[in-house]
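Figure S7 source data.
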Amino acid sequence: MVRMAPSILSADFAALGADIDRVRDEADWLHVDVMDGHFVPNLTIGPPVVSAIRRHTDAFLDCHLMMTDPGDYLDAFAAAGANSCTVHVEVGRTAELIAAMRGLGIGVGLAVNPETSVAECEPWLAEIDLLLVMSVHPGFGGQHFMEEAVPKISRAYEIARRDRLALSIEVDGGIDAETVGPVARAGADTFVAGSAIFGHPDPLSAARTIREAALAATAAR
Ligand code: DX5
Ligand code: ZN
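Tokens for the predicted D-xylitol-5-phosphate complex:
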């Protein structure tokens, strides 16, 4: 399976609805990057914007919470129309956050930064829907893909197969038609791309090109 999740971080925030419409036919999910200026050194968007997007589209909203205290805002994101939320394992209280997301009836994601081992997530892989492996240091779009993500994806994929888990593996950061190959081969099924899509003059065809490269790599797996 290949699931494309364009990251609106690289869209034009003054024309967000129009940019979302441009990629609609290739966007299985929309990836929404929420940054709190504390867990990462950047500020982006919060529940009011998610709710505006929700009024504009029925797309699946995959909210990536780069926040120190995501638990304070899960209710607000769910009420705004988030379909899933992903919290970082580095912020701790993981069991509590997973239970809160389950209680809200939204998809449950756990993200892991480049410097954090997949082993930190292992205790929860059977409890979550999505493991998000960061292939850049979170905080900004347009950074270079870090190859260190590839063995982490392989490890998670191996565990998911061994334990027959219904786990999606998402990769985020520096994904384009070149870098998507190795991560798809390693076992990722959900691909976030921001600048490679919205930084391209034709975002829809850019997304399609990345999807085709991912499909080709997955077929060779
Ligand atoms: C980075 C964000 C990413 C970002 C990816 O902190 O989590 O989702 O939008 O952007 P690109 O695809 O440009 O690396
Ligand atoms: Zn993200």
